[in-house]
Design brief:
5% strand; 2 strands; 165 residues; 8 helices; globular; mainly alpha
Length: 165
Amino acid sequence: MKKLVAVLLIGILAGLFLSSSQTYEQQTIVPQLERLLPDRPLEEPLSKLHIPYWGKTISVEERGYYYFLEFLFRKAAHFFTFGALASVLYWLLPANRFRFFLALLLTFAAASADEFHQSLTGGRTATWQDVALDLAGALVFLLVIRLFSLLRPQRRKAKKKRTLT
């Protein structure tokens, strides 16, 4: 099982490295969104969203429907990718009382390195907001893991108790 988790770690890190190496033009999904969503579903509710980010407000009005949708997908990718990274790190680390914080610290280091690497790529910028979003994903995923691990022994005890009676 640890080998599979280690392969996941390598895959996530390689994906992050490759993604940060690409220019915006290489990464954009706007043409695919235009092709897949010609009727602009959910445009009305999405147009009510205004997201403060990097000193400006990002919205459908400011960016346009497809670019706003792409922005949401990119930020969701940050959240979920670094949440997955933190989870994998947590499972690979030895079980002790510092495991949670060490996984979070290593994820912070990876997020910071990813943003720095991105800053070296033409047409891309590094932002502390993305690092904060990465850490939010990591924290949420790690808290879910901790919650399940705290509930799990109680379920086992309850099941064992039912089996004995």
